[in-house]
Amino acid sequence: EKRLAVQTEDHPLEYGDFEGVIPEGNYGAGPMIVWDSGVYRSVDGNSPAEGLSVGKLDLRLSGHKLRGRFALVRTARGEGREWLFFKMGAPPTEDGELIDREPASVFSGLSVVELKEGARRDRAVRQAARKAGAVAPAPDAATLRPMLASTRKEAFSDPAWIFEPKHDGVRVIAEKSGERVRLFARTGGERTHVYPEIATALRHLPIGHAILDGEIVALDDRGRSSFERIQRRFTQTDPAAIDRHLREVPVVAFAFDLLAAAELDLRGLPLLRRKALLATLVPRLGTIRYADHVEAEGLPLFEAACEHELEGIVAKRSDSLYETGRRSARWAKIKVPRSARLAIVGIAPGKGSRRSLGSVMLAGRRGDRLVYAGNAGSGLSEDDVEAILASAERTERPAPVMEGGPERWPEGARFLEPELFCSVGYTEVTSGGTLRHPVFLGLRDDVSLDDCIAPGGVRTVEAEEPAPVAPSSEEGELRLTRLDKVFWPAEGYTKGDLLGYYEEVWPFLEPYLRDRPVVLTRYPDGIEGKFFYQKNAPDFTPDWVQRTAIDGTDYFLCNDLRTLLYVINSGAIPLHVWSSRIHDLDHPDWLILDLDPKGAPFEDVVEIARHIHRLLQELGAPDPVKTSGQDGLHVLLPLGGQLDYHETRTLAEALARTVAAELPGIATTTRPVARRGGKVYIDFLQNVRGQLIAAPLSVRPRPGAPVSMPLRWTQVTKRLDPGRWNLRTAPRRLREKGDPFRGVLSERVDVPSLLAALGERLSAAVSRDPDG
């Protein structure tokens, strides 16, 4: 079916998202909407200029409405400016014209006629909301946190509930207030700049003020949300990368709730009333889309979700009010289960009571090949382990029988002939072909190798996350990935070794992390690769990972082992913490003096540390010491929240200047390295709100994997080797000798006595202080 298309003069790109009424007498006068928007690709490889030159454009369109292969062919009429436009392939099967079925803008949801008539929704929405019981004022979107759903295992039908498809994307609170639009992540951080196409569409909505709750997703070729694709968007912060991904990975936002509109707070209205108002503001097809639902019939929707391989469904009480920031039983998510029958082709060792078998290696048939499908450790019972080990004695072989697998198999891995079979549950398949979130469901004696088909063709996720699973709960799942990836090449230490270290020292480490904001330094490719700092927990952080918002930054809180392992699994090596805790951020628990040699002999570091120790001992002040994990030492004074940060820094400076004046030949308080004269720098400037120190027992990204090790003062001698304590040796020392540093959290220095004594000593020594 051919249509006429007339070539115009060039237009600026900004015209592509313009909607409005162009006044009479101007070019293109009249109402104009953006009827469709999206991405095109050349099928024949010609550039647009080449296509215009030869008179043919062969395109694949990926729009909200126009999808598939289309062609533009120039005719001889109209001085060469008239073209024919048609869709290639089979004719459409829908009844009627597409433009008649879908006349509305993909931005505003208005038709040309409605736009011409000035169809704003402010007055109608305000009247309807007032009548339903909405009140003023509307909340500030920056303070809102989304209502969260609980978990249910079984789908159900119920006339008191509505049911929506579950999307796998990024949750956002979206606000329009006049010309200002803002997008907020689930944890409160602003993400407007990351999704400019959503911000543009939000600006076009036909109302002056609205706050929406929804999910930003990237859709695959079958119209399903793809976590793999959206990951490529939410990790971008560079403007050039965002602009590139805007074209390569377009996204849409499914709006499923309306929290405020026309300056009124709608959270106290029943859900169905809120959604009815939302449906008048948001188009069904477009960059922002109304998330439709079915009433009562949850089971049929769940069956459809299973058939189309969606993530699941969300059930919501139709009368539910919006519970800001709470996980409510009145909303429930129900995931689609998936399972596969696979062959066991190897075993990997574990830890503790499961040392002999931590996980099983799995494979399935793809054509006439046997391909690796990942490892499963969760769900194995003692009986399963016993049966698999017995079979391994009989079927072990020297090399893998299947194709694929990690670059480096776990140490101690054993490979088996594919003679033992099992059922495995999982959530999805990575683009590398391995199972995500695999759970061992049981051995099978009723299947053969021909029945073991490698999973594929389902919604894919990032191929960099194919690994075994750690324990899970109804609150969320901890996924430990790429455990065999080498982080310290010279020593061969892997990410799995790093995770094992932090798990082993957790009982000693936990008191120093509890309630303290944590900042990460991530090394996704190990210590010799690129690294980056991360303060903000990203949007995709699971709900169960503990965080705290401070001054607009969403910090991790490692109050439990699962959260700690989650951040370490992200590639973090060192853990840097605040000196104060979230219940009193302005009063630190300790004062720190960082002895930084930067080329000075380590023996001088030891001498200065022992001098500080003697000075404080005379005053009866406790002074725990630890290695920095690099080249220096950290001496801390327990404060117990007695001082604010300004007072703490003043005390630290007095202490540092006193020591520098008393040891002028080896100590200095001069910060620039070039002006230190080969002396050890006593750094007191870390005693500032928000300044960080390496947590005790934190691993450092240096050769040998050293840790910031708590010491007894009897160990602080010229024979001290800070590199002696690393992720291999530190746990044993802690088990045998305990933690000598714990007093930093339980003791308190006598601040008035210390200040008085420092004043006397500083006055006596100031004339000898080379720093003045």
Main beta-sheet annotation = 6 strands, mixed
Gross morphology: globular
Radius of gyration: 32 Å
Mean pLDDT: 87
Given as residue ranges, the uncertain stretches (5+ residues, pLDDT < 50) are 457-475
Strand content: 25-35%
* SS field, number of helical segments: 17
What structural class should be given to the helix and strand makeup?
Answer: alpha+beta
**Distance linking N and C termini:** 89 Å
Helix content: 10-25%
Number of strands: 43
List the helices and strands and how they pair.
Blueprint: E1 2-6, E2 20-22, E3 30-32, E4 38-42, H1 48-54, E5 56-63, E6 67-74, E7 82-87, H2 98-101, H3 112-116, H4 122-132, E8 148-151, E9 161-166, E10 170-177, E11 180-185, H5 196-204, E12 209-217, H6 227-234, H7 239-248, E13 252-261, E14 264-265, H8 271-279, E15 288-290, E16 294-295, H9 298-307, E17 312-317, E18 327-335, E19 338-348, E20 359-366, E21 369-376, H10 382-395, E22 396-397, E23 414-426, E24 428-430, E25 435-436, E26 439-444, E27 460-461, E28 469-473, E29 476-479, E30 486-488, E31 493-494, H11 495-513, E32 517-522, E33 532-534, E34 547-550, E35 553-557, H12 561-569, E36 572-577, E37 590-596, H13 602-618, E38 625-627, E39 633-638, H14 645-662, E40 667-668, E41 680-683, E42 693-694, E43 710-711, H15 730-737, H16 743-746, H17 751-765
Parallel strand pairs: 8-18, 13-15, 24-27, 40-41
Antiparallel strand pairs: 1-7, 2-3, 4-5, 5-6, 6-7, 9-16, 9-17, 10-11, 10-12, 12-13, 13-14, 17-18, 19-20, 19-23, 20-21, 22-23, 23-26, 24-25, 28-29, 30-31, 32-33, 32-35, 32-36, 34-35, 36-42, 37-39, 37-41, 38-39, 38-43
